[in-house]
Amino acid sequence: MRNVRTALLMLLFIILPLTVFAKPLDKVRTKPLPGTVTLTFDDGPSPIFTPQVLAILKKYHVKATFFVMGWAVKKYPNLIRQMIADGHAVASHTNSHPNLTRISQRQLRYEVLMPKEAIKSVIGKPPVCLRPPFGAGNKRVAAFIRTHGMIMVPMGFNSFDYKRPGVNKLIKWVVSNARSGRVILLHDGYKARAQTVKALPAIIEGIQKKGLGFSAICYP
Ligand SMILES: [Zn+2]
């Protein structure tokens, strides 16, 4: 009887902090504020490109959302700390970028929980959004993510920056398609993102010229 009581008490101590300190998901804003777009950066952080992106965002006073990889959070925690210090939002993009609809429940568990814990251990709060790689999610994946305290958010408007179309083409594509309420997908991590970095100032200026502002989503 005493053992049962002790076990229950221990369970309570494990569950309580999670329920008390995690942000209620219905309070999480996953859409840009009216009159703004959201710039999102996936697949990072990268020790080469993320600092450049952060410097540009800072110069223009733009707040963005970074969907980061669990492995990279562990490797480059200081970049995550810099994002938070600069007022950006950090959310999950899984650990290793698999297609979540095609992996086992055990793998899904790792891909969802590992980055969540990694981010939490760096910023002190668990992330509240997860953007599945390749925009690939289904009901099973969404339900699993929700059960673990996060909202599955879509890919957003594709800049196709990963195809490296050339800086000018990239600027034109993003600026001409920017409109109020749009979440724009860009990349700062994993591969060669020099075009994205080079295009970013003109993308921001072009969007500003259209009378639009910027707001980040998925703040924990
Ligand atoms: Zn990705």
Task: Explain the overall architecture.
This protein is an alpha/beta fold and 220 residues long. The protein has one domain (26-214): Alpha-Beta Barrel (TIM Barrel). 46% of the residues lie in helices and 14% in strands. The strands form two sheets. Strands 1, 2, 3, 6, 7 and 8 form a six-stranded parallel beta sheet that branches. Helix 2 runs parallel beside helix 8 (194-209) and helix 7 packs parallel to helix 8 (194-209). The structure holds zinc ion. The site of zinc ion has 5 residues, from strand 1.
Unreliable runs: none
Query: How would you describe the oligomerization state of the chains in this entry?
Result: single chain
Number of helices: 8
Question: Compute the gyration radius: what is it?
Answer: 18 Å
What order do the helices and strands follow?
HEHEHHEHEHEEHEHE
CATH topology tier name:
TIM Barrel
Average pLDDT score: 93
User: What small molecules are bound in this structure?
Assistant: zinc ion
What percentage of the residues does DSSP assign to strands (E)? 5-15%
Shape: elongated
Brief rundown of the structure:
The chain has 220 residues and is of the alpha/beta class. It is 46% helix and 14% strand. Helix 6 links the parallel strand 4 and strand 5.
Properties at a glance:
single chain; 220 residues; alpha/beta; TIM Barrel; six-stranded parallel β-sheet; two-stranded parallel sheet; 46% helix; binds zinc ion
Q: What is the element layout, followed by pairings?
A:
Elements: H1 2-21, E1 36-44, H2 49-59, E2 65-68, H3 70-75, H4 77-85, E3 89-92, H5 105-123, E4 129-130, H6 139-147, E5 151-152, E6 157-158, H7 167-177, E7 183-187, H8 194-209, E8 213-214
Helix pairs in contact: 2-8, 7-8
Residues 42-43, 93, 97, 133 line the site of zinc ion.
